[in-house]
Amino acid sequence: MADRPSFYITTPIYYVNAAPHLGTAYCTILCDVMARYKRSMGYDVKFLTGLDEHGEKVQQAAEAHDMTPQAWCDSLAPAFTDIWKTLEISNDDFIRTTQERQVKAVQHLWERMREAGYIYKGSYDGWYCVPEETYFTDTQVKKADEERHTEGQHLCPDCGRSLERVQEESWFFKLSAFQDRLLALYDEHPDFVMPDFRMNEVRTFVEGGLRDISVSRTSFDWGIPVPFDDKHVTYVWFDALLNYATAVGFGNPDMADEFAFRWPAQFNVVGKDIIRFHCVIWPAMLMAIGEAVPEHVFAHGFLMVHDDETGKNVKMSKSLGNVIAPQDVVDMLGVEGYRYYFMTDCVPGEDGGISFGRMEQVYNADLANSWGNLVSRSLNMSAKYFDGCTPTLPEGWADAESPLREIAQGIVGRYAAHMDKVEYVAAKDVVMELVHAANHYIEDSMPWAVAKDPERAGELAQIMANLLEAIRICAHLLEPFMPETSAEVLRRMSLADEADTQDLEACCAWGGLAGGVPVTKGDALFPRLQSQK
Ligand code: MSP
After folding, report:
1. What is the rounded average pLDDT of the residues 16-40?
2. Which end of the chain has fewer beta carbons closer than 10 Å to its terminal beta carbon, N or C?
């Protein structure tokens, strides 16, 4: 296998019950930023996303459209792959749970579970929430109904929608046997769940005791058959969670080397609503069959719609009529602006309040007025003063003191310390410090005045070299957030070969600029938005 270390990152696999929305796009971009960053740090990255196609929820969506579940999934899959392409998602693989590789892996899981003695047959009698594909006990439902005053109606304790009563023969997974091992995992690897406060939530839940869970269904058939009991299909979560292992060759003898190289994953990124599946059930499943657990499960918050008038954040929902489609944001901000806004204005671990007003503010302030303006002013000046080129670099220019050189020293380390912890807002601040300093530097050094005096030609070349060098470094550091803009900036400076670096540290060392090469002025990267209001 490769000589570079593996970095394996995954998004949740999305239910194929509706088209992708802002929330699913948010999670996918969050992973994409990490994947791009890690590639630039020299890792051999595998970035996986895909679709969760089995289960009652998808079956019902198909029925509502008068289609077979498979035809329904096939018809909706392009809506996901298309939007990922639009949003510049650089996934290396796309898994669908109806693929042969997943069917084989899940059946292998059943065999391994049986050999290990962690499954048994019983019967399930309790509640089931189809939209959440989750089981609830009588006690859980009763408590939630009382709190909500549902007056005899039984509603899902999590999402508040109606529940199904399910009574059926079922295979169970002995989750209860893993309480101590899970608590030991959390103690030994306190960053197994990120951010910290989510770890506490998970620990408290497990300390409260674990119940065995039903992992097969007999009352419908849209699932992977249990290999040794053909009346049963696999519970959708038991199937879905395994996708992360399937994609790197779990249970496939032809992919043994790949599995050894890739497993365990470094990051399973998920929304906060599905952490129990990922931080409790999933590691227990892996422990049961003797496989390593992922290094980190990172749980992001929910995107909420910020009401600019009341100042409150509200859930995005069809009934409130405040759902924003990814395309609406792309139309307004462009893809690069879209990615930048969500990744740098919403703290990944927390719920983010989004609004069109705020989008416009961030776009204009950071992209149009700061980054875009810096690039166009500097490239225009370089082209004007140096005959369409970057300046011929003065001897020893990279050793000359300058406020920009000072900020650029050690910038990759400061940036990486935040990127590694998914602290994108802080990482962006590190880069924007250099962008702002460069804009100030233009005002302070007044290249237009220096250019008037032929005796100061050396000084002018030094000023422009400092500016262009700061831009080059910022372009590299902003690449995970805005890949196309960074590639374009480097192209305009005749540095296209530097894009897609695998050694960010070396690449961002002060002094890498190419002197005397053509610069392209080009259109404004981020034309200013004029408020609709
Ligand atoms: N199919 C399961 C995941 C299985 S992973 C082995 C699932 N699918 S989902 O399509 O319902 O949700 C996928 C992800 O989208 C979840 O991580 C969820 O948190 C995220 N989001 C859904 N709405 C969201 C927001 N409004 N904001 C941010 N993310 C949200 O669950």
Report:
1. 94
2. C
C-alpha–C-alpha distance, residues 273 and 14, integer Å:
13
Calpha distance 297→266 (Å, rounded) = 8
Q: Which residue has the tokens 């990486």?
A: 416
What's the residue count for the chain?
533
- Report the alpha-carbon distance of residue 388 to residue 382 in Å, rounded: 7
For residue range 390-445, list pLDDT tens digits in order. Answer: 999 999 999 999 999 999 999 999 999 999 999 999 999 999 999 999 999 999 99
pLDDT digits (tens, 9 = 90+) for 61-100: 999 999 999 999 999 999 999 999 999 999 999 999 999 9
For residue 480, report the distance from its CA to the centre of ligand 1, in Å: 22
> Ligand 1 in contact with 270 (CB < 6 A)?
yes
State residue 288's pLDDT score: 98
Mean pLDDT of the 381-397 span: 96
- For residue 236 and ligand 1, the question of a CB distance below 6 A is answered with no
Q: Pinpoint the alpha helices (H) of 92-223.
A: 100-116, 138-148, 179-188, 196-207
Calpha distance 452→67 (Å, rounded): 73
Q: Which amino acid is at 375?
A: V
Q: Please report which confidence band the pLDDT of residue 235 belongs to, taking 50, 70 and 90 as the band edges.
A: very high
The three-point CA angle 213-220-123 to 5° equals 35
Under DSSP, is residue 303 helix (H, G, I), strand (E, B) or coil? strand
Q: How far is CA 128 from CA 156, 162, 237, 331, 339, in A?
A: 8, 9, 13, 40, 37
CB-CB contact of 32 with 89 (8 Å): yes
Cβ within 8 Å of residue 443, ≥6 positions away: none
- Quote the mean pLDDT of the chain: 95
Residues 6+ apart with CB under 8 A from 256: 249
Is residue 256 within a helix (H) or strand (E), and if so which, with residue range?
helix 256-262
Residue 331 CB neighbours (<10 A) = 10
From atom 7 of ligand 1, which residue's Cα is the shortest distance away? 14
